[in-house]
């Protein structure tokens, strides 16, 4: 029952560019959202296992953030202040220092980049090149870092890259852990870098996602990330940990690499950083690398003041003690169990990811998309990822109530069962 | 009386990257803002002639936008919906079609890019290259288009470009109108393009700001822009009018080129598009160019739902008839008069820009900065622009009440008088 | 009477790539050549006003060079010695120092590059970038510097550039003197470089031909070249004078810029350097710029030993006193006179070039090609140049006997008259 | 006993660029050469196991080539004819068709590129990009393809690449067979290309040396090369076999890949192609790929006529039957035996290469260089190769008489023994 040409959506078809995408999978018009659920204009409610692609880790419209934002607006709090000093930025920085940096022994500074992940990644790449005087940045297979020309060069997906319309420069591609079966990717990378005639220019940085979100929920091991960190140091390169999708609690800790014993030099953050899904991004950088001149990387919307307000609330509410982390851990176990049921239905299926960033590789994009489509019909918003969209990906809000979470997982299991039955019956004909 | 190391600002010095900039000129901590004025934490009020670099054309916290946003939030309106269909996007698109496109006979589609100007520019550049199969984009001296690698290549400023840390590709630089004194820049460009041995690759697009904001308030004439449009057509290139700073009423009409008899193929918009200073950007594109595949250019925060709400209010409130335009026109006259008084004080000073985007080139960045610094001490927020920061630039909210506008202009005149007196007395020693 | 598919040439059609070119204009099979004349396999003799595109400035098979080469070969002189020390290289370097460098007060060192002009240009570009740490090289409209990717980037011709199959980087294009009618190109270039927001990166070098051969025999004035030299110094860039076609006596002096009061840092030489048309190229470089590491730019055929032998003879025979230069000067006058007769026949025709590197711009490539084709039928080998092949170009050996020279010029005048008559009669129909 | 500053060589030090290299290892002034031996100005004779880096596969000054060249010159045969048709080119093409192409069932056309290997490689790269409309060319670790910017991008050596002075584009680097120990490099390459999110752009070509000369005498297996050919076909890419150093009989057959059951689309040739060490290069291309427009890739010295003369003699003399190949095979066996003796002296030493392109990896550049230096003192010219110069490389003329060959090999064995003794005694102290 596609609605794309129906009356309510016609303005979208008529006026919104063909670049639009999620609206094609979830073909209804949403009007409100709260916690783990979205409601469309017909009053139908959907459980949200997409969460703005991990931008809504605390759910939709958290009541405390809502209230703080409304209070701010009603008091004529600043909506746009360029990168001037504001009381809201001050409060955010203090909270970030207290709740995040200090407890983790980190001394990073915060650069307010343009309020998109790709902008934070571009800032990181620019700074790495500026600091080292080198051009080459090592990025990984299946990596996704954004769509502006610098970040796009580091992104692996062929279709996205082709959209650039010109050759993309400055990146050497290396295999992510596990991307080549049994091949020891770390040994491969080391051998290529150690060989002075390999044709690989000395790197400015390694740009790596500790867990690849768009790339198929590939989770690197601590050993592998430590190896990358060691190679970076050995070759005079910086380590950029792109924690845009995996960070802010998604894997169970604020940063996805917290328990991995590495110290990234540069950490782009975005998505759930504002807490409430507002556009906001930042680059954490070690103080000794902060060689930026004033405005050397600027942008009109850097430092979204509304986002400072909600982000501060999020930090204070969720990261003042370890109770939130413990809840995530418990929920992650439930998730693994449920996904295991899905995996058991499909020959060769594999569990992917970790924490609340897990999924099932069902072997084909067609099957994965069918499962997601059937889930949507049953009231669950869920998407695929991976090079061939072969992974059914669960990115539920970390705050999802247990009952809602269980209900969503059951829908997923039902959808998978139906999809497989349909596929089997087709195959049997 | 620099406050940068004082107690209230120490968190900024300690934790915010050296890339921060405006806060260095306006060294206080702002806490609220309304209409044309900002207030700092000590309760001091400043008239704002910067307006978020033209992101606050309707002033701070317009009461109707505020109310609509608060209502939306309190009703659990969607804060983040990726690029799904929402009632808020629907309402925005309908308003944009009714209030902007139809009255101007335009048939452009709207692409929700990442919510930054640079992202809209990158999308335009990518699309122009994709449509034409060519790489080369012609950009202009003193142009400013953003800081991500694609847009940065098109930006003229040497310092900004150096921040990229690597060579920037895909751009041929041509002189903007008036940038070379009496030289007929249009004839020059035409001669270079017509010569098959000039070494200039066939262009995918011309990327031009009708009025250059950062570049020094250079306003191109209708004849010159028509000439560029003609050359684009002649050489099979698209015309991209970057209206990020000059658009949304700043020059007196919604688009800065409305009265110029040109039809740009692609129009990046940002800054004041949301009405309230929220991060929001879009690319207008002629329907026949909409060859994007789904998600070929995507981004987590494309289509900021809060911004849809406020942008719709702005369109309905200010663009339903021509009364707003008439008020801008009147205010622009007052602005020209006042700036004329400043210009009269300085040998060789020149008025720059048009509409509510005017300034005075006082011949040196040192003098211009001194004027701005003295204005700030007197309670006026105002900045410079130009390659050497030699232009004192007025970007007051278009809604500034006449009395406040007059007061601000008087402060500016006083500051200029003081600065010149000081300079003269130094010169006399 | 095209022969391209006839029996004698069929092996060429069958086995030689479509990239072949001159053989298409001069469709016969040549078997021998002496002095200013070439003879084909049918015994027909042609006067050669092409001279290997200025590679045979001393004519074909100069008897002294022939003898020296034959003596060398018969004595088992080295044919190929990589870049080892040989008595032949020693003798060449000594002659070059004595006959060329010392009398001109030059202290340049000699780098034996691969034996092609494009390789010498690439070496110059690499060294300029290495010395300055900058990427950007300023090249000029209508410049021709070779066909390998570095040099091709600096070449203006659209067709040649398209052959590269990918975007070419690292070059900013500036207008050559006179390329834009009355526009003061030097002032334009200076304004673009002085504007820190022009988007032109600081240059590593200016790469300029004192006379543009392929570009249409455009001869820069001393004032203009001095201006370029001054701008190079002002902006910390090197001056590369590509004297591959205009050097080795072609304009009347050994270097084409000798009387221009400039001191180029780097001077690529090739074409007539060997004296006898053998593959040979070199890069002259100021000693303080010689920061090459051993083999940092190498090549199997660098330092062609046969060419050392003939080049030494050429230097000793023609450059031991000023008699050769005086003869060139006299012949150049005769050339100007004859070309004046051609120019007088064509409305708007213009004399181009200087010395023995002159031609007539007849306004269209069609007419110029017709003149050359008719000349060939009458026994004269002559070619066109320019962006549209609109210039009939005379590059006769500098040693052409006066009678042969006069005969060749008369053929040219006759061919022009016939061509114009044909064009006029077509136009009259 | 370094002679670099002595009287005879002072002109070199004073006037030749620091880029000079082989003369540093072989510090004497050579004056003549015949067959397998070179003689310096003091009358000392050296056995030549370098052979112009495989440019003198038929030895120095082959008497038949000498005579043909002298006859040609004395008869005023053309020395330089651009790319016009000449009887000499005709005879060369006929011989090449008869002796090389037809017997091997090949239908390639011949493109006369500039007379350097790097130019032939650039032509191949340009054509591959032009034919496929793609930019990316896959090159291999330790590959060496030349020093102009296009070919340099494909070259692996870090020092050579750094000489370019700017970032090099358009190449993706893949591991050569055996470069990573036991890793299945073919499987790796296939996995990277098959993954649509690997970030590797679709390739225009694979550029591979069947035996890597400069890279350390790495000889790919037939299986591996067939695998590369299969991947090229699978991904719509051309196969470029760079046979510049390994071709023209060096490995035992005219092309190094003859017995490998692959059909390269493009084959750059140079070095020994002229037979006598004269500058000459060509690109063989399958007829259906010959989409070049006239002069789209040109060059003054393309089609060196002297080289046509000697190359024709070489083809007729050595490739009319299989006797030459049988002699090479026999000599190759002797070479393997002798190198085995060297390898036996050094712990962990490895035999490298195949045919008359063999060497010993002695584990360190220091040791290999010491062996070569001692060999030179004993009258043998021999060089190293490999990323760290760790391979002692034998590139003797294929025509070396057995006695001379044995004598040279004995010198090598002695030099190795002496070097090892010295190293051991140092180590023992």
TrEMBL record, chains A, B, C, D:
SUPFAM superfamilies: PLP-dependent transferases (SSF53383). Its cofactor is pyridoxal 5'-phosphate. Its EC number is 2.6.1.76. Pathway: Amine and polyamine biosynthesis; ectoine biosynthesis; L-ectoine from L-aspartate 4-semialdehyde: step 1/3. One of its GO terms (molecular function) is diaminobutyrate-pyruvate transaminase activity. It holds the Pfam family Aminotran_3. InterPro entries: Aminotrans_3, Aminotrans_3_PPA_site, Dat, Ectoine_EctB, PyrdxlP-dep_Trfase, PyrdxlP-dep_Trfase_major, PyrdxlP-dep_Trfase_small. It comes from the Bacteria. Coiled coil: none annotated. It is an enzyme of class 2 (transferase). Signal peptide: none annotated. GO terms for biological process: ectoine biosynthetic process. Keywords: Aminotransferase, Pyridoxal phosphate, Transferase. Belongs to the class-III pyridoxal-phosphate-dependent aminotransferase family. This is Diaminobutyrate--2-oxoglutarate transaminase.
């Amino acid at each position: 029952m596609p609605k794309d040409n129906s009356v309510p959506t016609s303005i979208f078809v008529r006026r919104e560019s063909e670049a639009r995408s999620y609206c094609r999978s979830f073909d209804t018009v949403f009007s409100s959202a709260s916690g783990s659920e979205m409601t469309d204009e017909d009053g139908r409610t959907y459980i949200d296992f997409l969460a703005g692609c991990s931008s809504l880790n605390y759910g939709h419209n958290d009541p405390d953030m809502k209230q703080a934002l409304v209070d701010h607006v009603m008091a004529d709090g600043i909506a746009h202040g360029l990168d001037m000093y504001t009381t809201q930025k001050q409060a955010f920085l203090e909270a970030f220092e207290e709740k995040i940096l200090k407890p983790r022994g980190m001394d990073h500074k915060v650069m307010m980049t343009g309020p998109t992940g790709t902008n934070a990644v571009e800032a990181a790449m620019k700074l790495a090149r500026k600091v080292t005087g080198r051009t080459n940045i090592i990025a990984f297979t299946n990596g996704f870092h954004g769509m502006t020309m610098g970040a796009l060069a580091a992104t692996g997906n062929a279709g996205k890259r082709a959209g650039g319309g010109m050759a993309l420069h400055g990146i050497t591609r290396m295999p992510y852990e596990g991307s080549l079966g049994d091949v020891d990717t770390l040994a491969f990378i080391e051998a290529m870098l150690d060989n002075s005639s390999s044709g690989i220019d000395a790197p400015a940085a390694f740009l790596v996602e500790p867990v690849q979100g768009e790339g198929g929920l590939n989770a690197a091991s601590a050993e592998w990330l430590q190896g990358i960190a060691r190679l970076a140091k050995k070759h005079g390169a910086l380590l950029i940990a792109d924690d845009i999708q995996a960070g802010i609690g998604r894997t169970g800790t604020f940063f996805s690499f917290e328990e991995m014993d590495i110290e990234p030099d540069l950490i782009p953050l975005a998505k759930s950083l504002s807490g409430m899904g507002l556009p906001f991004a930042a680059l954490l950088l070690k103080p000794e690398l902060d060689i930026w001149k004033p405005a050397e990387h600027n942008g009109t919307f850097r430092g979204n003041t509304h986002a400072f307000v909600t982000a501060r609330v999020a930090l204070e509410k969720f990261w003042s003690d370890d109770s939130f982390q413990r809840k995530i851990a418990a929920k992650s176990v439930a998730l693994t169990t449920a996904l295991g049921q899905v995996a058991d239905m499909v020959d060769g299926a594999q569990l992917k990811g970790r924490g609340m960033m897990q999924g099932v590789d069902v072997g084909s994009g067609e099957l994965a998309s069918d499962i997601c489509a059937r889930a949507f019909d049953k009231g669950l918003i869920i998407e695929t990822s991976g090079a061939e969209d072969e992974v059914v990906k669960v990115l539920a809000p970390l705050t999802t109530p247990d009952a809602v979470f269980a209900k969503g997982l059951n829908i997923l299991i039902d959808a998978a069962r139906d999809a497989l039955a349909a596929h089997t019956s087709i195959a049997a004909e």
